[in-house]
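Below is how a single chain appears once it has passed through the pipeline. First comes the sequence as given, then the structure the pipeline wrote out for it. We keep one example in the README because the format questions we get most often are answered faster by looking than by reading.
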Amino acid sequence: MNRTHIRLIVRIWLGLMAIVGVALSASSAANAQDTGGTITVNVFNQTKDAKGVATKVAVPGVTIKVSDDTGAAITSGATDAAGEVVLKVPTQTKFNLDLDVATLPKGVVLASGQTEKAVVDFTVGAGIGANKSYNYFLGKDDRLTTGRFKLLLQTLVNGVKSSAVLAICCIGLSLIYGTTGLSNFAHGEIVTLGAIVTWLLNQEGPKLHLLLAAPFGIAASALAGMGLERGVWRPLRKRGISLTSMMIMSIGIAIAVRYVYVFMLNSKFNRAVYYRQYHAQPEWSIGPIGINERDVIVIVLSVAVILAVCYFLLRTRQGKAIRAVSDNPDLASATGINTNKIILMVWALGGGLAGLGGVMFGAAHGLQWDTGFNLLLLLFAAITVGGLGNPFGALVGAVIVGMATELWTWVFPSFLEYKNAAALGALIITLIIRPQGILGRKERLG
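Resulting structure:
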C-alpha cells in the first residue's frame, strides 16, 4: 500500500467522521428544541377487604399543579377516569408537584406518610422522551366518619391490651420486690431476652411457629432470673450488702446486658422486627371498634395467665409461702419455710412472666434491642401506683397506667410521643392521695 492509498483512506475516514458529526449536531439541535419530558401522576384510593387484600381505585378529577424550584407555575391538569394525568414539562432538573386537596372526593384524605407536595427529580434520564411518574394514595377519612367519642371506645380497647401486657411483665417485678426488697432495674432486659429468644427460633434456625417458640423464650427468661438470684443476689445478701448498693448494681447489669444485645444482634435489631405469625393482620370491625386476632389472643392469654397466677398465690402451698415471705421473711423462716428456695422460685416465676410479656409486646408492637428498657418506666410506675411488693396491687397499677397512656392519645392526639407522661401523672396523683399505693400498707419510718 503506497502513500496515495493511505491518503485516500484517511480522507474517507475524515469524511465519515464529518457526516457523523453533522448527524449528532442535528440530533442535539432537535433535543434543544424539544419541550423536555413528561410527568405522569396517578391518584388511587387504596382500600382493603376483610382479608387484608389491597385494592387500588382510580380517582378522577383531582388537580395536580407543577412549579419550578422558585415556585413559579409551569402547568397543571386533572386526573382522567383512570386516575392519571400526563403533564408536559420543559428541560429542567427538578419540579414541584402540588395536589389540590380541595379537589379530593369527600370522605378520603391522603394516606399516612404522604403529603400533597412532592419533588420530581429529572437529574438522571432527562432529554427527549424522558418521563417520570409519581403516585398519590388516598385512604378513608376517619376524621369525617368517626366521632371523637366513638374513638374513645377504640382507645379503651387499646388500653385493655396495654394493661394486660404491663400486668404480665410487672407481677414478677412486684413479687421480687416483696420477697427481697430489691428494685431490679435489670427486669427490662429479662423481658427483652424472652422476646429475642422467641424471635430467633421463629425467624431463624428451626423457624418454629410463634406458639411453639414462645415457651423457649419464657424458659430462657426464667433461667436468667434464677441465674441472677443464685449467682449475684444471694451471695450479696449473705455478705450483708445494702439494698441500695444492690439496686445500683442492677442498673449496671441492665446496661451491660443491653449492650450485649446491641453487640451481638445490632445487624438484626437496628429497627423493629416482627414474628412470622400474627403480623399485619386484617382488623375485625365491631361497630366503631377495630381489633384483630393477635390482639384477642394477647388479651385472652393475659387474663388466663393472671387468673392462674392469682390462684397460685392464693390457693397453693407454694403461693402461700411466697406471700408469707413477702409479708415477713424472718417470721416465715422461723416457721420452717426455706426462704432461699422461695426467693429462687419467685425469680423463676418473675423471669418467666417477664419473658411472656416480652413475647406479647413483640407480637403486638414489634421488637428491638431496647424494648424492655422502654417498658421499665411503665413497669415501675405500675407497681408503685398499686403498692410496692403487692402482686395484686401491681395488677391494679397496670390497669391504671395502661389506660392512662392510651387515653393520653385520645385527649392529646397531636402529642402521641409523650404518652408515657400520663404514667408519671398517674404516679404523682396516686402518691399525693395515697403515698403507700392503692393496695399498699402503711409502714412506720424510723
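The longest helix spans residues 148-180.

See the next section for the split statistics.
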